[in-house]
Write a structure and sequence with these properties.
It is a single chain. By secondary structure, this protein is an all-alpha fold. 31% of the residues lie in helices and 0% in strands. It has a domain at 8-78. It binds zinc ion. Zinc ion binds next to helix 3.
């Protein structure tokens, strides 16, 4: 997160302005573009994503939604329930809380 967490209402109210300005205050994937809630790093196979969201040309919400919204949309589109599996990033690492000094080589 590049700044303190915003409320979902604030995120949704300022989403278009942020996008038009090139996301000056937060990363576009920090928040769900559907509900305005905080978004985690996550992925799903593209066939499941498209089953919930439709073909890529029809993806709403800039194609950026949170896991909770995704499950809701997937269940509505397919009638299938889903269960999330949490998997630590590999190689296993701790969350970075500060930018490292210029050591990216
Ligand atoms: Zn959401």
């Amino acid at each position: 997160m590049s700044e303190p967490m915003r409320t979902p209402d604030d995120v949704l109210a300022t989403m278009a302005v942020q996008r038009a300005a090139g996301w000056p205050d937060w990363h576009p994937e920090d928040y769900c573009h559907r509900c305005g809630g905080r978004n985690a790093s996550w992925h799903v196979d593209s066939d499941r994503f498209n089953a919930a969201m439709g073909p890529p040309t029809l993806h709403r919400w800039n194609g950026i939604i949170c896991p909770g919204c995704f499950v809701e949309l997937h269940e509505a589109a397919t009638g299938l329930t889903a269960t999330w599996t949490l998997s630590p990033d590999t190689p296993f690492r701790r969350r970075v809380t500060e930018e490292p000094a210029d050591d990216r080589g």
